[in-house]
Design goal:
By secondary structure, the protein is an alpha+beta fold. The radius of gyration is 20 Å and the shape is globular. The longest helix has 15 residues. The chain is 30% helix and 31% strand. β2 and β3 form a beta hairpin. It has a twelve-stranded mixed beta sheet, with helices on both faces. α1 packs across α2. It folds into two domains: 109 residues, Aminopeptidase; 157 residues, Aminopeptidase.
């Protein structure tokens, strides 16, 4: 059958469901639901020129791509495309067609450098390199079995520190935005991000359908959050850490580790059985925390880059 590539249609429920299914089958270490797929379409910043593309064969979604400009980067002209094909529907041309459509879109909106994540497996690396992409830095996916594993004992909370869920900041989440903005700017990676738009953060991050405000924990000092661990859940038994970080003035005190382990204890009590997280391979402090918590590497992906002439 012929494979066609088109934009995801919000008025067609099967599109969002198919997109989420492809993402789960191709990369089960990141949480995606139909609601989160629709959220990305409707809440993305206009300057990102965001598109969700699907590859369809005989009415079935067999491939998916997320495509956008890194509009919140300090360096203009950077774009990303992440291509996924159902593992049981490969070798039909879906990946090639999605890549071509994504690259044409990014070139048209001014991208000069393209980034993509590729699972560190021979076929995936070869696909990226055939399309002109060059290998960059690796990152790991890690998994924690909350149903059968054992978490370390809860550390003592330091004097002057209070642990509070994000739900406590519902009336005024700006302090969490300010902490997020500071920590994300220090994340290792090729693309430097800078959060400056509070309203956009509210729409994209605070209102994200996977965000669990009861499981997202913050370490608070003098009434302000200084470290946090952001928790996503699929509404059932799967949990993912979206971000963990500490304000610069409070680093070295174990506060991020404290927030994360309290979040995991809450998740286990709420019936979560499986937790995922991700680490840049060079982020030694976070790798150490996750190893202490009992996470194990379950997959590795590599950032690939292509310069557009």
């Amino acid at each position: 059958m012929t494979v066609i590539v088109r934009d995801l249609r919000l008025d067609t429920p099967a599109d969002a469901e198919g997109y989420a299914r492809v993402r789960h089958l191709a990369l089960p270490y990141i949480l995606f639901t139909p609601d989160s797929v629709r959220h990305l379409v409707t809440r993305s910043h206009p300057d990102a020129h965001f598109r969700q593309l699907i590859a369809v064969e005989d009415g079935e979604v067999i491939g998916a791509a997320g495509v956008a400009l890194a509009h919140d980067s300090t360096e203009p002209g950077q774009g990303y495309l992440n291509i996924y094909v159902r593992p049981d529907r490969t070798h039909r041309g879906a990946g090639r067609l999605l890549t071509r459509a994504a690259e044409e879109h990014l070139a048209a909106v001014g991208a000069s450098k393209l980034y993509t994540w590729v699972l560190d497996e021979p076929a995936n690396r070869a696909f990226a390199e055939r399309h002109g992409y060059t290998r960059g830095r690796p990152a790991h996916f890690l998994r924690l079995d909350l149903a059968n594993g054992t978490l370390p004992p809860l550390p003592e909370v330091p004097q002057g520190v209070e642990l509070r869920p994000a739900a406590d900041f519902t009336d005024d989440p700006r302090p969490l935005f300010e902490l997020d903005a500071e920590t994300v700017s220090d994340e290792p990676g090729e693309v430097t991000v800078e959060f400056t738009d509070y309203d956009a953060w509210l729409e994209q991050a605070w209102k994200h359908p996977l965000l669990d405000r009861e499981l997202t924990m913050a370490a608070v000092v003098d009434g302000r959050p200084v470290a946090f661990s952001v928790a996503y859940t699929d509404g059932a038994t799967r949990y993912s850490t979206a971000m963990t970080g500490t304000a610069r003035a409070h680093r070295g005190r174990g506060l991020a580790k404290l927030a994360k382990i309290h979040s995991l204890y809450r998740a286990r009590a709420a019936g979560i059985t499986e937790a995922f997280t991700g680490n840049d391979a060079g982020n030694d402090p976070m790798i150490a925390i996750n190893k202490w918590l009992g996470y194990e590497i379950c997959a590795t992906e590599v950032r690939y880059v292509r310069e557009l002439g």
